[in-house]
Specification:
single chain; 291 residues; alpha/beta; TIM Barrel; six-stranded parallel β-sheet; two-stranded antiparallel sheet; 10 helices; 10 strands; binds iron/sulfur cluster
């Protein structure tokens, strides 16, 4: 995993990442990362014992494609460094890949996998829950652009929010839009509650929504999931029913759904992060993960 920044200006209310150094909505760009990465990769290539990574998940602690020039410049340079070393890169984003990346991505399309993330295409919902992220229609345009450059793109439907975004009507609309951009495969998972997510939702969404969400988590204990000490998941039966609903809707439209094993360790089997580190040999430790 490589992070070129910590924090995210998109400010999604359900964001699971806990920023250690920055406030919600702020971002700290690690401008020296490309140089450090270049040095590290060169050193590893020269060393007989140390081999560099075959695949990298870029930016788990921020979104790579926020419209912030200093961030985009570092992302571009980081991709150049990784591609030059033959490293495959996986990127997950709610943002838009700018035209300025066309040359680089066209040249290295075989080394890149992009997962474009959506929670809903309903404008009212996205304004409430993803206040700083680009409009879903713009994200669909970004997918079309990437595909035209030869880049493999998948979708991520995340998070499913009980009674808010997981109804048949909402899912049909979302799946229809994703398919219209030519996407055939998506990964999904339900909302994962963490203390900071609960605090944001409780104070910033309509009371009726919060009542539905709170009711869906009722009686569920806080537990350790993966590296996270304090996590609450909805009852497994409720999640299973929701995933079946999504799969039924998606299959009718020709979209294959996998469940993310990182976000849902009980029911998940698909994992973008794990796929991107399948052949990882020698994880670089330039910065600790912020999540
Ligand atoms: S785009 Fe991703 S990293 Fe940024 S706030 Fe939303 S969920 Fe968090």
């Amino acid at each position: 995993m490589v992070d070129v920044a910590a924090g995210c200006s998109f400010g999604c209310l359900f964001c699971p990442v806990r920023w250690r150094r920055v406030q919600d909505g702020e971002i700290e760009v690690f401008v020296d990362l490309p140089d450090r990465l270049r040095r590290e990769l060169t050193m590893r290539r020269r060393s007989a014992e140390q081999v560099g990574p075959g695949k990298v998940l870029l930016n788990a602690a921020t979104d790579s494609f926020q419209p912030i020039p200093s961030l985009l410049a570092v992302v571009h340079e980081t991709l150049e460094v990784l591609f030059s070393a033959g490293v495959q890169v996986a990127v997950r984003t709610r943002g838009l890949v700018p035209e300025g990346f066309a040359g680089l991505l066209r040249r290295h399309s075989d080394l890149l996998l992009v997962e474009q993330t959506f929670f809903s295409v309903d404008e009212r919902l996205t304004e409430q829950y993803e206040p700083g992220a680009p409009h879903p229609q713009q994200r669909l345009e970004s997918i079309r652009r990437l595909r035209a450059w030869g880049v493999e793109v998948r979708a991520r439907i995340q998070p499913l929010i009980p009674f808010v975004s997981d109804t048949v009507g909402h899912l049909e609309e979302l799946v229809r839009h994703i398919r219209s951009a030519g996407i055939e495969r998506a990964t999904s998972s339900y909302l994962v509650m963490r203390p900071q997510v609960q605090e944001r939702l409780e104070t910033r969404i309509p009371q009726a929504h919060w009542n539905l969400i709170r009711g869906s988590f009722k009686g569920q204990p806080w537990r350790k999931v993966g590296i996270h000490q304090m996590t609450r998941l909805m009852p497994i039966r409720t999640r299973d029913q929701g995933y079946r609903r999504l799969r039924t809707v998606a299959e009718r439209a020709g979209l294959t759904i996998g469940i993310c094993a990182c976000q849902d360790p009980d029911l998940g089997s698909d994992c973008f992060a794990r796929q991107s580190s399948t052949d990882l040999v020698g994880q670089l430790d330039l910065f600790p993960s912020a999540s």
